[in-house]
Design goal:
It is a single chain. This protein is α+β, with helices and mostly antiparallel strands and 664 residues long. It has 25 helices and 22 strands. The strands form 5 sheets. Strands 12, 13, 14, 15, 16, 17 and 18 form a 7-stranded antiparallel sheet that branches. A 5-stranded mixed sheet has the order 2-11-10-3-9. A hairpin with a 2-residue loop joins strand 13 and strand 14. Helix 1 crosses helix 2 and helix 16 packs across helix 17. The longest helix is centred in the first third of the chain and has 17 residues. The protein is globular and about 85 Å long. Bound molecules: 2-(butylsulfanyl)adenosine. The site of 2-(butylsulfanyl)adenosine (IVH) has 15 residues, from strand 3, strand 8 and strand 11.
Length: 664
């Protein structure tokens, strides 16, 4: 066991920071472990009792907040860690409720601390922290300093509402700058800062820290029939609610909401650590009920951000199909989110420089939404004095051509189009599932095909014979025939997939599909000028130039011609050309409850030539507004945006009244 004096001293520091400075230095888990160690020591060495840090800090300032029992306990939420788990929960819940239709409300999971606020006859009377869920600290004077929280409601209501106190990113920055200027330690993150601030005794200092609050739950007072209705009421009473909450009618929309915020939350002015999904109907909530700790009618979808530390042993350089040279960290194996990780992406050499990475460094890894973990931080303090910095490569690791960095570009690249690694990657991309989908060809076979001189690029695949293949190692006549059949079967892929397979820089799967839909045929695409291309909504100047350059490049022209000569026949998109005059090039926003899923409307509108975006602005032409359209509708009305209903749109799209049902 650790020597008691240093253990005692360590725990004393943690307790002082937590209780006296309201600023935890370590996680609860580390703290609890130290407490257990001290307790164990004291059991065996009762003579050290007087020196125990646990015996101290007794009359600390924070004890002076009165404890208050919650009339209704503040529960926590069960977590879900993947989109599949969300769907499983939905299925279980529907079984439990005996219904196949459940409306949900999706909310952001604000990363702050939970509080309960009471109003009596319209006046704010009590504010309590969550504490252990049964009782918390009464911090009413501090809560009264929270920005945007009214001390008086417009009606003499008696309410209990709950929500999350947080510190916005810019208020957090400002607070830390002020602390640094005064020689005080800065807070690690906005949540610690908010938690610490709410537990301070000096309310005028709390006010300076500019805490904010979003309310997300009403537990007493006049209730609406649904959770969303309650949120709308709170808003009407002037209470702060989060503007991103959405009512949705399918689990697909819940999943889409979670996916969206998993990838876009960094742009919010405050931190969130997930999404909370709640059953909308209060009657159904009651029917679903609670377990001992949490409601069955709600779940928290947590963004994956588990971290681990490891040591950087080497940096491998990957060569992409466009020649980009990507650094990959080779690490001591470590467990992260349940898998053993020994490689992590370093993105590019700008990122390596930003991290100041050296070989042998102790690094922090994180798994974001992506499958491949990334290196997010480096512990320079643990670095060996002679450590060698990681620098951009001088040459391509495969063909030894000197590496280049294009002006204004982040990536270092191998400029040799004939580089074997690039050729291999281009073929692998060509056969991949979302491109030509030739399942019978994988990385090992591509390697063999090149090595045997059977192919030089993807177009050569179409002249490979079964007899040639059968000569390759580990390849019998039957598998050889399967490969040839697979290649043959790829000749009639949709135009979008073919376009994606060509590997035009800046044209990913989605853009390829969009271009296919808008231009309809390969001939139209090959002939389209840069100007024509950039007139398509969502196609910016970079994509337009890249596509136009690609089809004007003689080598690429020859490549496409060879593919066509081998009988590759991209299939025109069914909807192509069927633009709707009223909608072509128009910007449409969808809101409210519709009779058909939003993504169905989105697809239809896009196919008709419209661009569907998420928020109403001056650029919006139409708002497709369903029932209870809320703030987007108000904003659209203010901006004079034309409102549409589903019937009008069906009419414009030439759908007969029964079409919707038939499609669904
Ligand atoms: S609902 C019974 N909604 O997450 C319902 N909680 O892990 C309980 N949180 O203790 C909470 N944003 O501190 C709810 N929109 C939101 C939330 C939210 C953040 C926090 C809250 C709660 C914890 C549960």
């Amino acid at each position: 066991m650790t020597a008691p004096s240093s253990l005692f001293e360590e725990l004393h520091r943690y307790r002082h920071a937590y209780y006296c400075e309201a600023e935890p230095l370590v996680s609860d888990a580390v703290y609890d472990e130290r407490v257990t160690q001290v307790q164990q020591w004291l059991q065996e060495h009762p003579e050290d009792q007087a020196a125990s840090p646990l015996a101290q800090v007794s009359a600390e300032p924070l004890q002076s907040f009165p404890t208050r029992t919650h009339r209704i306990p503040m529960l926590s939420l069960s977590n879900l860690y993947s989109l599949e788990e969300i769907r499983e929960w939905d299925a279980d819940l529907k079984k439990l409720l005996g219904t196949s239709e459940v409306e949900y409300v999706c909310e952001l999971k604000i990363d702050g601390l939970a509080v309960s606020v009471q109003y009596e006859n319209g006046a704010l009377t009590v504010g309590v922290t969550r504490g252990d869920g049964n009782e918390g600290d009464e911090v009413t004077p501090n809560l009264k300093t929270v920005q945007g929280l009214p001390h008086q409601l417009p009606e003499p209501l008696t309410l209990e509402v709950r929500g999350e106190v947080y510190l916005a990113r810019d208020d957090f920055e400002r607070l830390n700058q002020r602390r640094e200027a005064q020689g005080e330690a800065s807070f690690k993150n906005p949540r610690n800062a908010a938690a610490g601030s709410l537990r301070m005794l000096d309310s005028s200092e709390v006010r300076r820290r500019r805490l904010s609050l979003f309310l997300y739950n009403q537990v007493e007072g006049p209730m609406a029939a649904t959770h969303f209705g309650c949120l709308e009421q709170l808003e009407q009473w002037g209470l702060p609610t989060n503007p991103e909450a959405r009512r949705v009618s399918s689990i697909d929309e819940v999943v889409a909401f979670c996916e969206h915020w998993e990838h876009h939350h960094e742009a919010l002015p405050y931190e969130i650590d997930g999404v909370v999904v709640k059953v909308n109907s209060l009657a159904l909530q009651e029917q679903a009920g609670y377990t001992a700790k949490s409601p069955r009618w709600a779940r928290a979808f947590k963004f994956t951000a588990e971290q681990a530390t490891s040591v950087l042993r080497a940096v491998e350089i990957g060569v992409g199909r466009t020649g980009s040279l990507t650094p990959v960290a080779i690490l001591d194996p470590v467990s992260l989110n349940g898998t053993i990780v020994s490689r992590a992406t370093l993105h590019n050499y700008d990122q390596v420089a930003r991290l100041g990475l050296h070989l042998g460094d102790s690094v922090t890894l994180e798994k974001g939404g992506e499958i491949i973990p990334k290196v997010v931080a480096v512990d320079a303090a643990q670095r060996w004095a002679q450590a060698v910095p990681v620098l951009p490569p001088q040459a391509c690791p495969v063909c030894d051509t000197p590496a280049e960095q294009g002006s204004g570009e982040v990536d270092w690249r191998c400029p040799n189009l004939g580089c074997p690694a690039q050729q291999r990657e281009r073929v692998l991309h060509y056969v991949s599932r979302k491109a030509m989908d030739i399942e019978t060809i994988g990385p090992a076979l591509v390697e063999q095909l090149f090595a045997a001189g059977l192919i030089g690029d993807a177009a050569d695949l179409y002249s490979v014979q079964a007899e040639d293949l059968a000569q390759l190692e580990r390849m019998g006549p039957k598998s050889a025939q399967n490969v040839v059949t697979g290649i043959e079967g790829s000749k009639q892929r949709p135009l979008g997939a073919f376009l994606h397979a060509l590997g035009i820089p800046h044209v990913g799967e989605k853009t390829a599909k969009l271009l296919a839909r808008r231009l309809g045929t390969l001939t139209a695409l090959r002939e389209a000028s840069q100007e024509e291309l950039s007139r398509i909504g969502e196609v910016g100047p970079i994509i337009a130039k890249s596509v136009s350059d690609f089809f004007r490049n003689p080598e690429q022209q020859a490549f496409v011609d060879r593919l066509l000569a081998h009988g590759v026949e991209p299939q025109a998109s069914e909807q192509a050309g069927q633009k709707v005059a009223e909608l072509e090039g128009k910007v449409v926003v969808i809101t409210g409850t519709l009779t058909e899923p939003r993504d169905v409307w989105k697809q239809r509108l896009e196919e008709a030539g419209a661009n569907v975006t998420g928020s109403v602005s001056k650029k919006t032409d139409f708002l497709l507004a369903g029932a209870n359209a809320g703030s987007k509708r108000t904003k659209a009305e203010q901006l004079g945006v034309t409102l549409l209903d589903e019937a009008t749109l069906r009419n414009w799209l030439g759908m007969k009244a029964g079409d919707a049902a038939a499609e669904a």
